[in-house]
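Sample 1 of the test manifest.
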Amino acid sequence: MAEPLFHRGPGRIFRRLGTRAQVALCQLPITVIVAIIAIATPFAWPSLTHSTLYLAGIALHGILFLACFLVPWERLAHRAYLLIPVLDFAAIGFLRNGAAPLLPGLAVLVVFPVIWLSASGMLTRTSLVLSFVGPFLIMVPPTVTHLPSVTASDLTTVVLFPLMMLAVSLAIRFASVNLRLQQRELAEKDRELRELLAASREREKLLETVLDATDVGIAAVDRSGHFLVSNSRQRNFRRVTGADDEFPGRGHQLIYGQDRRTLLPPDRRPISRAMAGESFADYLVWAGEGPEQRAVSTAARPLVSEDGKLTGAVVVYSDVTGWVESLAANQDLVSNVSHEFKNPLNSIIGNVDLVLDDVADLPPHAAKRLLVVQRNAERMIDLVADLTASASTTMNVHPKRTDLASLVETSLGSAQASAQRSHVEFAADVPSPLWAYADPLRIGQVLDNLVSNAIKYSPDGGTVSISAEADAQWVSLSVKDTGMGMSAEDAARVFNRFFRAESARQAAIPGAGLGLSITRMIVERHGGTITCQSGEGQGSTFTVTLPAEGPPPSF
Ligand code: ADP
């Protein structure tokens, strides 16, 4: 829609002028024309210099123009200045009738006061009456002089000319009504826009307050890396990392990997990963250095527009320093305690072994008791070994090309006796050979643990089946039992240290909840994965996936 006239430059200038200057400006066009006619009169129409009426018309125009400046309109009644266009009619009447018939066209000058009155905003009726009556009174005197022999042309002039001016006035009225409607519409839109702006500012403030109240850092970035939103926590993380620019992911930043010492390459920083469209959770990085260094768990989700295009990302930062430190302290404690247990236990086992070497010399009840001591001490040393392994953060694996089929065979062989005792049968469907890139000792340990669990948690007997699947990249081994199983929630936590499922505790099956956490650690050190699927009373399936091939040899 076109912008209304008064919103543009000239309108604004006009409104800034004082009332007198405004009135004078409205009167200026007609004054200029009358002044030109007055100057031309002695040369063009010398006879008119003798017409008193004509000269009175010119004089009155001059007086009216001066009055525009001299009268203090701002102190008078509202729109008192409209007297000027009304008096213009008189001045034009004098001018026109004084100049007739030499200069008949001067009546046309009434168009100026008619326009002024019609556009002035005065009452429509008044402006219409004035626009008709003014020209009518100007045209009447010459016609009266023709009385009684008035011609049809006289009558036409008297009626037609005022009617034309009435039409001009009407047209201006319509145009200004339209203009005012447009202005009102525009003002309404302007108001709505202001309201919307205020509401959106309020919402922005609310969002900022909510974001700052949360104890996680939150940042939203667009594709080019500008921050759309960020809260105080996130800004704090950036301060700790020494990020001094407004553009995330660029420049030098103190963001370290898990070892707390190796700087992450820029494309591995959480924001860079998020900007590349990655979606992740629990990505642990270390921000800053020295005593200020914080462990930060990060998560990201891409921002996608309605038409499915990637528009940016949201990244969330949680300070998990306390959690990571207490975990490390916990691990230290477990590893120290288990280390301290090892020597006395070895000494107990050694001494009991020595005494039991001469078992024939011992009274039978003492020998029986010593065998119990030996069994339990051996159980404890196994437990201590598990504790040490589970607390260790540096488990070494030495993978090489290994036949998993033979490991399965060995594992099932050594578990055969305990399976028979528990009325468990084995079924293996593993192609031989089945090559994987694995540490045979460690993967043997994994299989032993899975098979022994499968037997242990099948107290009523059943079948333990081992199957395999392989493609060019990965080899999977599944150990499936028909035992007691566990709930899906327990199955999701089964690899946590010290976790024991409800079903195992209810059935009072002994265990420390360490074997599977060690198992997972071994598998992950190989770059593989382990999963558990189970249901209460429906048996369990543990699936280990390992790389089929090692990294290509480097020459
Ligand atoms: P432990 O057997 O010494 O308790 P694990 O780490 O080997 O420790 O296992 C952790 C828990 O997972 C067990 O306590 C048991 O509740 C559950 N679990 C493991 N394997 C099975 C299985 N095959 N069937 C049912 N529950 C199992």
